[in-house]
Amino acid sequence: MLQPHELKLEDMGDLGEIIPGPEPTLIAQRNAIPQFGAPARRPIIPVCEPWLAGNELKYITEAVETNWISSAGGFIHRFEAMFAEKMDARYGVACMNGTVALHLALATLGLEPGDEVIIPTFTMIATANAVTYLGAKPVLVDSEPGTWNMDVEQIEAKITARTKAIMPVHTYGHPVDMDALNAIAQKHGLFVLEDAAEAHGAKYKGRAVGSLGDAACFSFYGNKIITTGEGGMVTTNREDVARLAWNLRDHAFSTERHFWHKFLGYNYRMTNLQAAIGLAQTEQLEKFVAARRANGAYYTAQLRRVPGIVTPPEAAWASNVYWMYGIILKEEFGLTRDGLRQALARRGVETRTFFIPMHCQPIYFDQYRRERYPVAEDLCRRGLYLPSASGLTREDIDAVVAAIWESREEVGAK
Fold first, then answer.
1. Left if phi > 0, otherwise alpha if psi is -120 to 50, otherwise beta: which for 322?
2. Of 331, 342, 338, 339, whose CA–CA distance to 309 is shortest?
């Protein structure tokens, strides 16, 4: 029987101090009655929820009525083509989820045990796990404080004879400095795989994220800018990568005869039902991105007046899509990150902590026990993100900001 990797915080030394506390309990607000014509606030403002405002029901109905509900059907090809085009890529390979997309793209490289892939330590665990699934080793780099992304200047020092790829993560919707990263990759002959799970529609120097390396991977989980409930996509401008990924996602059936397999394949297919939703969502991508950017700008304008809050970055060369609107708390705010989360939860506002770095995770701690990444650790200690859905209204944002002020005043902060 599989046993969990137990890790007590007291055994982590000072790293144990950065690990978030338990999730706070959300309390619905009952005082949501409008006064003097003002709109009522929602009892609970969730951290994220899908915006299904287009052709989702129409396309799903068509798929059901025509009996194309499995992994064949026209919506899969239409979704792949449209999404790839939006990402300035020639090919899209739809699959079951974002983690599968990462695994599938890495599998095309033929990684072997002992091979290395350079990733940021500050990321969601799927990034590291996808590398580990193939027997390869994730090699970690720290973040840079300016963008919260992997520090490109630290990459070259981590390259060895076993390095096969670099996997940048466009954290919370802000692109990585890809020109600098690609220059390093080209110098050393390395594959570049963008983890763009959080960055649908983001731009780097006017170019779409998803077309800036050899391949890119997207997630369509329910909290993503485009969602299919569960789903993922590999985008690429390389025909060889696309063809192999298409083959591997479907058990690697041979074109010579049906039950004939030359590769270790996977059952990673997306259904036509999911693709129907994805196509409808992709048709609205520009609207979703405009809403996220407008909400991000409005949040920033309101929160800049709150002492002790650092708002999200946007480099001059970047277009941040604010998949999640993250903030960092300084001491002058008057509450810890966990303290603010608890206070907001009592006011019906749902939040999430920033990522816990890979070198602090129970399943990876022993592997990276001697490594420290101070920027990532500080982001973990002080960061959280606020409600960030595309359908968030200004009234919602006003209510969140008011709850932050109230939380701060509750402890007598000046």
1. left
2. 331
Burial of 196 (0-12, 13-18, 19+ CB in 10 A): buried
| Tens digit of each residue's pLDDT, the chain (414 residues) | 999 999 999 999 999 999 999 999 999 997 655 555 556 778 999 999 999 999 999 999 999 999 999 989 999 999 999 999 999 999 999 999 999 999 999 999 999 999 999 999 999 999 999 999 999 999 999 999 999 999 999 999 999 999 999 999 999 999 999 999 999 999 999 999 999 999 999 999 999 999 999 999 999 999 999 999 999 999 999 999 999 999 999 999 998 889 999 999 999 999 999 999 999 999 999 999 999 999 999 999 999 999 999 999 999 999 999 999 999 999 999 999 999 999 999 999 999 999 999 999 999 999 999 999 999 999 999 999 999 999 999 999 999 999 999 999 988 766
CA atoms within 13 A on the CB side of 31: 4
Q: What is the spatial distance between Cα 200 and Cα 226, in angstroms, rounded to a whole number?
A: 7
Query: What does the alpha-carbon distance between residue 386 and residue 240 come to, in Å, rounded to a whole number?
Result: 41
Q: Are 193 and 106 in contact (CB under 8 A)?
A: yes
What structural domains and CATH numbers belong to the chain?
9-51+285-410 (3.90.1150.10), 56-282 (3.40.640.10)
Please name the residue that has the structure tokens 């790839």.
84
- 248's enclosing H/E stretch is helix 239-248
The CA distance from 189 to 230, in Å, is 34
Residue 181 CB-density burial (10 A; 0-12 exposed, 13-18 middle, 19+ buried): buried
User: Which distant-in-sequence residues (6+ apart) come within 8 Å of 227 by Cβ?
Assistant: 50, 220, 221, 277, 278, 281
Output b/e per residue, 227-257; b: 16+ Cβ within 10 A.
Answer: bbebbbbbbbbbeebbebbbbbbebbeeeee
Tokens of residue 82, six digits: 């449209």
Structure tokens at 13: 């030394």
The secondary structure of residue 360, as a DSSP letter, is G
Cβ atoms of 412 and 334 within 8 Å: the answer is yes
